[in-house]
Amino acid sequence: MSKRIVIALGGNALGSNLPEQMIAVKRACTAIADMIEQGYEVVLGHGNGPQVGMLKLAMDELAIHHPEQYTVTPLSVCVAMSQGYIGYDLQNALREELRDRGLKNSVSTIITQILVDANDPAFDNPSKPIGRFLTNKEAAVELEAGHTVVEDTGRGWRRVVASPKPQRIIEIGAIRALLEAGQVVITGGGGGIPVIEHGNHLRGTAAVVDKDAAAALTAAELDADFLVILTAVEKVAINYGKLDQKWLDSMTADEARKYLAEGQFAPGSMQPKVEAAVAFAESGPGRRTLITLLEKARDGLEGRTGTIITA
Ligand code: ADP
Ligand code: MG
Fold first, then answer.
1. Nearest atom (ligand 1) to Cα of 211
2. Whose CA is nearest to atom 25 of ligand 1?
3. What are the distances in angstroms from CA 158 to CA 127, 128, 130, 228, 293?
4. Is the torsion defined by CA of 165, 170, 176, 178 positive or negative?
5. What is the pLDDT of residues 219-247, one digit of tens each?
6. In which order are the strands placed within the sheet that holds 201-204?
7. Active site residues
8. According to the 3-state scheme, what is the secondary structure of 268-308?
9. Residues 188/211, Cβ–Cβ less than 8 Å
10. C-alpha distances out from residue 267 to 79, 173, 270, Å
11. How many angstroms separate the CA atoms of 270 and 250, rounded?
12. Are 90 and 31 within 8 A, CB to CB?
């Protein structure tokens, strides 16, 4: 049976505007096509920070300037939009790259919802900034609407939302079916659309699920062999940025947990990746995570570089 891998593409694989995205995505798809050519079954996840920021800003401007015509667009809808247009670029770039190599796999994007727990303690402590900077007046409007805003080091106010733990992927059955039919699936963009279950009704919630945590859950639910987190560094380091910085070739989940407790990995960047790697390693036997650069993915899968996290 061929090995199954779930890839989490970082921000540098997408660029921060539409023309950049076209170029960045082409580069990313060369690396991904290499893996498919090597015989791996591939599921692709990706971030959406700048993209969802742009969409939220655009939709807010519409609501502000044309209140008679438009209401505010919820964050969950903006995440869905971002999954759609990033997936559109990725699936076409990958399709073209595969066709150029004589490969016929279909590539499709699944709009992905991810179940979160309404009682997740993260909802008591919103920490993830979204959208643009706000004036004092706009911040007051947000507060009145029940949203949380924080002052961002003299640059103005920002709305912050919770980052709850992903519990279950709603579309997992569709993802698995496509994968088993030999198709490449793009899923969980931006960490997925966080939803809360009310009986049969799924309600989008203004929260952001970490994309690396979402990819780890996807990998566990698909019984993948590898979680591959492609980011802006070739390896994970301890004492990062210090004189005694040390790049790691590998770590066990126990070692990773010790480093996490020491605060070795920056919150909001490397910390969630290492946490995702630990969660995946402990979700079943033989499951390993590779953290490396996009350009090094192939070398990393062959054990020549990157940081490998195992149980
Ligand atoms: P992505 O968009 O791929 O999620 P992030 O910026 O969120 O990227 O996280 C990757 C960044 O984490 C790296 O570019 C690096 O600057 C930073 N980082 C923080 N701590 C460490 C560490 N201990 N080892 C390596 N990189 C680290
Ligand atoms: Mg990140």
1. 4
2. 236
3. 10, 10, 7, 32, 31
4. negative
5. 999 999 999 999 999 999 999 999 999 99
6. 168-169, 113-115, 193-198, 201-204
7. 11-12, 128, 211, 273
8. CCHHHHHHHHHHHHCCCCCCEEEEEEHHHHHHHHCCCCCEE
9. yes
10. 22, 32, 7
11. 15
12. no
> Any alpha helices (H) in 130-244, and if so which ranges?
136-144, 172-180, 211-221
Is the pLDDT confidence value at 130 over 90?
no
Residues 109 and 96: their CA atoms lie apart, in Å, by 15
Residue 24 in contact with ligand 1 by CB distance below 6 A: no
Per-residue pLDDT tens over the stretch 38-56: 999 999 999 999 899 899 9
How far is ligand 1, taken at its centre, from the CA of residue 1, in Å?
A: 33
Mean pLDDT for all residues in the chain: 95
Q: How far is CA 71 from the centre of its chain?
A: 28
Instruction: Say what the alpha-carbon torsion angle 273, 80, 35, 256 is, to the nearest 10 degrees.
Output: 10
Q: Is 141 left (phi over 0), alpha (psi -120 to 50) or beta?
A: alpha
Q: Where are the alpha helices (DSSP H) in the chain?
A: 18-37, 49-65, 75-100, 136-144, 172-180, 211-221, 253-262, 270-281, 297-301
Distance CA 308, CA 167 (A): 25
Pocket test for ligand 1, best of 230, 270, 271, 305 (most atoms within 8 A of CB): 270
Q: List, in order, residues 6 or more apart from 25 with CB less than 8 Å away.
A: 13, 14, 15, 89, 90, 93
pLDDT digits (tens, 9 = 90+) for 59-102: 989 998 999 999 999 999 999 999 999 999 999 999 999 999 99
The whole-model pTM stands at 0.95
* Local structure of residue 73 (DSSP, 8 states): P
